[in-house]
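job 3f2a | input accepted
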Amino acid sequence: MGRHLIPKLEETGCEVIAPRSNVCDLTNPTSLAPFNSVRFDRIFHLAAWTQAGDFCLKYPGDQWITNQQINTNVLTWWSKHQPQAKLIAIGTSCAYPEEGPLTEDRYLSGEPTPSLYTYAMTKRMLYQGLRALGQQYGLKWLCVVPSTLYGPGYHSDGKQLHFIYDLIRKIGDASRGGDPPVLWGDGYQRRELIHVEDFVRDMLSLTERISGELFNIGAGADYAIREFAALIAKEVNYESSLIQYDTHAYVGSIAKFLDITKLKNVIKVIERIDLQKGIVDLIGQNKVITK
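job 3f2a | predicted structure (291 res):
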């Protein structure tokens, strides 16, 4: 997200300071001290300690401690040293309860998916932190919840990738003579993708107009994993019937589809990059589908 957000901000004439984790460890309460004297207009809090796949299932305790440290340190620094700045934080669709529509009024309701529970609750706590500081100190904030982001510039060198990159890599490798791809679950679990450029554009539009609220930013449509797999297989000339499904593997949520009615009430014309074009562009990036 940051790789796409920073240039967009700079295009509008903003001076951007974006320290990376290797020089600014947000689990350290003093990590932001070097920036105390800089007067910021906006703070984009994108940081979180998480990964795709079954990472959240394996490290719930570490996730709780690390993400709570990150969020507490960022919000403390904001309230004490940058109260004039508007803070824009990233939520997660994992925070929504498993049952029912994913509308903003239900972000704190019910129980999140068990395997994603800890990460989801740290994001709920972040949202409540924004509300609490806004209430007590009058600080300005916005919290935006994306559906699964995709697009160029994704870190694709890890073993666990977000599902669309994982599908592209596995099916792409198979099309070049590798083993038949094995996908997690039965393939009927549903996912929603939004191109990172669309997300950043809508987030910046909301940043200029809205304070003190939570907004979903989604694509407006979801599809089964099998549909994504068939699209990729067709593009790389691979027979989709050869794709295997491991019904015992971890799948996370069965479906995640954000309701964007609230967004449409603010941004009247919702623009979206064509999903098929976006995925085809990803397939064309060899680094995404190469082992």
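job 3f2a | Residues 60-81 form the longest helix (22 residues).
job 3f2a | closed
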